[in-house]
Amino acid sequence: MANITxxxxxxxxxxxxxxxxxxxxxxxxxxxxxxxxxxxxxxxxAFSFDKVFYEESLQADVYEFxxxxxxxxxxxxxxxxxxxxxQTGAGKTYSMEGPSILELDDLKKGLLPRVxxxxxECIKSADKSDKYRIKLSMVEIYMEKVxxxxxxxxxxxxxxxxxxxxxxxSGVTEICISDPADALQSLSSGIANRAVGETxxxxxxxxxxxxxxxxxxxxxxxxxVKTGKLILVDLAGSxxxxxxGAEGKVLEEAKxxxxxxxxxxxxxxxxxxxPTTKASHIPYRDSKLTxxxxxxxxxxxxxxxxxxxxxxxxxxxxxxxTLRFGARAKHIKTSPFVNRAQDKLxxxxxxxxxxxxxxxxxxx
Length: 364
Ligand code: ADP
Ligand code: MG
Hints:
binds magnesium ion; disordered C terminus; three-stranded antiparallel beta sheet; nine-stranded mixed beta sheet; single chain; binds adenosine-5'-diphosphate
């Protein structure tokens, strides 16, 4: 069993926060894992995470601590998931993509381009007798529908479950990527297809959850195929509806987002309510998001959560809610293992549950 690793990242104060409230911040760093947070009533709370990234942190460090072990795992057929969580404007997309997915400045590149580079580098240094193939799919969950960002005609992808392969998106577009530049072009066109709205928080904020899926297949010398799945999730903003001043369609979007994020919270509560009171029912099926993240939260995945926060006292209530979410998630345990090599021709056996021996090589 492995705990979900939980990281916290504070972005620099925005120019608006500085204009409205000067340089004051609501956190005091203790060390690289612990800080004290002060709420609106000056009450103090200490929080500890696997690592805390403060405003001067480098994108490369976030990648190295949070993503690199998961990328290496995926190339070795261990599934992994990386999730960014936080209110709109807290730095989720900056952490995931960088200022833009095609950012050229190496200092500013986000997790996604670094993951792409990392996958190809790991493959280069892997056993030369194995043949690798990387496939990419991209979907967003918008108004509780799963839309294929690489083919917008597929606007209601169904979620299925295979006993061997876990959660699957039925008929989703999968493109083979041949090198990092090719991957970035596809990611860029997929991102351009996202549903984006404008809220009174005065920025283009994504009103959908965006999910990137890399499937790394390695064909072994005996022709069997091993697969590792790496999922990155840029969640929609976790702020409360009232604060955004939303109306009409935007209000409906915000309510749907709040609902799926509250189901995510319910799933985490059910998974972490302790051995004596352990909930027998985990409500994964209550939202598309938790259904897709079922393996990431309670199954075969090595999972990292990045809680993105503003350091400004003006956002203290939302930040506290994000920190509490992260603190809760630290207790979730998943069971990642090396996926069994599959005979290429044995497709008809896909839905037969593996035996205990076949689910071997537990690595953690
Ligand atoms: P979110 O995706 O959570 O809504 P963004 O990632 O779009 O938020 O970030 C909001 C703004 O803050 C953007 O202008 C972004 O460039 C800036 N920003 C976020 N995180 C950082 C950071 N670590 N360093 C510098 N700027 C950042
Ligand atoms: Mg965003």
